[in-house]
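Entry type: protein chain
Record version: 2
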Amino acid sequence: MFHGSFFVGIFRFRHESVKHMEADNAVRINVLFTSVGRRVELLRAYRRAYDALGIDGRIVATDIDPLAPALQEADTVYLVPPISDPDYVQSLKQLIVREDIDLVFPLLDHDIPVLAQHREELEDLGAHVPVVSAEAAALTRDKWETNQFLNSLGIPAPQSWLPDKLPENLPFPLFVKPRSGSAGKNTFKVEDREDLEYALKKVEQPIIQEFISGPEITNDVVCSFNGDVWAVISRQRIEVRWGEVAKGKTIHDPEIEKSCVSIAKELNARGPITVQCIMADEPLFTEINARYGGGHPLSIAAGVPSPTWYLAAASGMIVEPKALGSYQTGLYLTRFDDSFFLDESEYGHFSGRSI
């Protein structure tokens, strides 16, 4: 039942938000997802978007791990060097040419600064790379710089300090996290000075923030290739596993929406970004991830078919989204584990396909 309503939503937006050209069997859009990891649902959503638009194309995926689950959903897969490897960018260039790639989406935080820095080189090869600028990528990767950026816009954010600038009277409890961390790794709630000293020894390049107790809201901000904000969808986290939402629901808050639009405009964002906030007396904004959020399939199911929009835009169709806030609220997501099974020959196929 869930999948049926999901597909109907995609099909409905095919007519309401995309102006179609005459059917052209020559239209072919190939999409590359880097560092696909566990993003099975997102790749499946793109598969449905191809069908909804009636266009052809292939999904190409990369990772460093041959057992990354989402590789099973791609048409073509490649194992690439680690992002820190000097050959990583060259491998992406070869892949874009070899597979005639039209669109590139990074799915891991560490990928974004690299793709942003080399975006012009990659786009010279014929692919859209809808990511933020190199400056914006550096800002969003550093949680201290993100906090200062939010303050400069007048957007509410938690009080924050660096270790060498801590005030004498700290408002415990506090929250300590890495300035460049992701997925909630290596974070600590601290209740007193002793806890704080322990956390500061454990966390590399930490930022210290006031601890905010309240619902966590992830906001999917869908931007066009030109920086227009097509949609803002707010998802309340109910349960999180491994740093990614396992249960959640869609909500709408005009104040959050307005702040997200301001953030996207100031960053001159391209493509999908996610903005995190916590609901206290007012929404306090904490992080910006300049990529698809892990829970984005809930936003798609709620009536914001970003895969359809991006494939349509890349193929020359006109995308005309509805007004901001035009999505289903009170829609719940609940996830479960699923499995792929590979025999030795299938594993060898994935592990042996490198570039």
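Comment: The longest strand covers residues 229-241.
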